[in-house]
Amino acid sequence: MIVHSFHGGIHPPDNKHFTNRIPFKYLSIPQKSFIPLQQHIGKPATPVVEAGQFVEEGQLIGQANGLISANVHATVPGKVVEIAEYHTPYSEHGLCVVIESDGSFNTSGRVRQKNDFLTLDKEALIGKVQSAGIVGLGGAAFPTSVKLNPPANRTIDTLIINGSECEPYLTVDDMLMRTHPEEIIEGTQIAMKILGINKAYIGIEKNKPLAIKALQTAAANVKTHEITIIPLNMRYPQGAEKQLIYAITGREVPSGGLPMDVHVVVQNVGTIYAIREAVLFDKPLIERYITVTGKIVRKPGNYKVRFGMRVSDILEECGGLAENPSKIIMGGPMCGLALNHMDIPVVKGTSGILFLAKDETKVTPFRSCIRCGRCVSVCPMNLMPCDLGNAAEKQRYDIAEKLHPFDCIMCGSCSYICPSKRPLSHFIKVVQTALSAKR
Ligand code: SF4
Ligand code: SF4
Q: Which-ligand-closest: CA of 406?
């Protein structure tokens, strides 16, 4: 049952016009790359190189540490100058392999032999995904080889590819679908073979008509699998896993549950593209497309960037800023991470960098709740953000615990809509942190 939407949600200005017509461009390689060993959910990778060692582009530099972890590869060739703690998007003290580029690339642009995925079995395919260090590129950064290999007692019958890109400002998935539709369809077929299923949907919001058309055309050529493109109503957070699953299948993931509980696996379009590169060309995940945007960026656009390149280096390549930014966000404005400086590297889960001007980030002090109920009506998880916020403010975590705080997907819709400007999702994060520490 396709319902094309979900309960709640908001319609923030999408601000995609800054970059949604700008074709992909490669950024130059920085002189120094700071490659974090933790770019994923789970344990950090273990370094397998030493300071002073020369590495090739794509060489393994961090070995996955256990099941929920991911390999990390050299994104540039050069000399490992140190392995030390630096500020990363996920930690102020994240261990990084710092590589000074020596400028001699021997794999970029090389014509690689194409593997025939039809001749490979599930284990071999998953092995290639795991070895390439692929994680969810939609932002969650969960190791993809684990997601594509659910426990034997969970039956999967549907694959959903997330092309909704509902976050304002970001246009990188839209551009990828418009320019590489055949590759995305081929990647979808590979993921379907791994999962042993024959049905997939690609969900795309209706504000991306060119992407919808391109993928419909590419999918029409597939005779062996059923791949259906689903235009979705525009509403944030349409791209959240549970909301996407409901919009496309009508199935509701239970509280505390996972997509596999309703027989579904969800992958982002960028991840599907990376799966194809890994399986067909044995290409490790060392780069991705990101959107660099905001009205104060001199050359906003959709850029291909190597992991480990710092925001300051990226900004220089993008012509700098017309004025000092008031806020810098890695990702989109709703779910992204606010950065307090620019010496932070891009990682696998970075979908964009947004620079906001002073007049776009007015901070007004929050006031008391007036019980208007707007936060409740927009919450896609059917929570009571107002009550959670009130409990958090009074540090009554005993009350908050009964209001299902861990079902919150941190979409920020409640904070966005609140007329009293209450930082509700921040309050809920505080509750989650306090309760987690108690457990
Ligand atoms: S939207 Fe804000 S003011 Fe209205 S009920 Fe929720 S917390 Fe209270
Ligand atoms: S409570 Fe959580 S899930 Fe609900 S609107 Fe707020 S941030 Fe989103």
A: 2
